[in-house]
Amino acid sequence: MEKDVLYIKELALGSHDAFKRLFMNYFPKVKYFIEHLVKSEIIAEELAQDVFMKIWERRERLVTLESFNSYVYRMAKNAALNHLRHKYIEESYLEDYEGETEQTIEGDLYAREMELLEKLTVGRMPKKRKAIYEMSRREGLSNDEIAIRMGISKKTVENHLNLALKEIRKTLLLFASFFI
């Protein structure tokens, strides 16, 4: 984060090296984020490149940013949303439903973002908690079945599930409060 502040200041002055460093650090993350929203690696790469093109074009304005990370992800989200809107309109040809379409696309995009955040949060959990959560939510096993399979008590399973759900709720609430 502190390095980002320095790079942003240098970038605002036109430093190609600072842009390159920010690009190398953030491009893979931005592309990955967009790819999970638009479900296409090729389109995600193009949209991520567009995001960084706009960052370069608007570099003088970046000095006032409090969080480059938030800024770049907001741009990525908007690029993906705009792409999905455009794609839907091209496919539908029905102008009567444009207002309804935007709400549906935004809802779908929001649901995909939430799903991605859940997956990322679960991926960072300790091994045992992650395994218990996935057995419960992905495989549909009961707490008793998980306890037997893992050779632990039902209470331990419940504790791990409670901690996992608490962690996921915290992440989703932070995300929701940021974008709402």
Sequence-ordered SSE layout with sheet pairings:
Blueprint: H1 2-12, H2 16-38, H3 41-57, H4 68-92, H5 98-123, H6 127-137, H7 143-150, H8 154-179
Domain RNA polymerase sigma-70 region: 22-86
Organism: Parabacteroides faecis
Keywords: Sigma factor, Transcription, Transcription regulation
Strand runs, count: 0
**How many helix segments?**
8
Major sheet size, sense and barrel closure: none
String of helices and strands:
HHHHHHHH
Helix content: over 70%
Domain tally: 2
Family: Belongs to the sigma-70 factor family. ECF subfamily.
Domain RNA polymerase sigma factor 70 region 4 type: 122-167
Domain RNA polymerase sigma-70 region: 22-86
InterPro entries: RNA_pol_sigma-70-like, RNA_pol_sigma-70_dom, RNA_pol_sigma70_bacteroid, RNA_pol_sigma70_r2, RNA_pol_sigma70_r4_t2, RNA_pol_sigma_r2, RNA_pol_sigma_r3/r4-like, WH-like_DNA-bd_sf
What's the short version?
With 180 residues, the protein is mainly alpha-helical. The chain has eight helices and no strands. α2 packs antiparallel against α3, α4 (68-92) crosses α5 and α5 crosses α8.
Description:
The protein is mainly alpha-helical. It folds into two domains: 1-92, Rna Polymerase Sigma Factor, Chain: A, CATH 1.10.1740; 109-180, Winged helix-like DNA-binding domain superfamily/Winged helix DNA-binding domain (Arc Repressor Mutant, subunit A). Helices cover 82% and strands 0% of the residues. It contains eight helices and no strands. α2 runs antiparallel to α3 (41-57), α5 (98-123) crosses α8 (154-179) and α7 packs across α8 (154-179). The two termini are 24 Å apart. The mean pLDDT is 84. Residues 22-86 form the RNA polymerase sigma-70 region domain. This is RNA polymerase sigma-70 factor (ECF subfamily). It holds the Pfam family Sigma70_r2. Keywords: Sigma factor, Transcription, Transcription regulation.
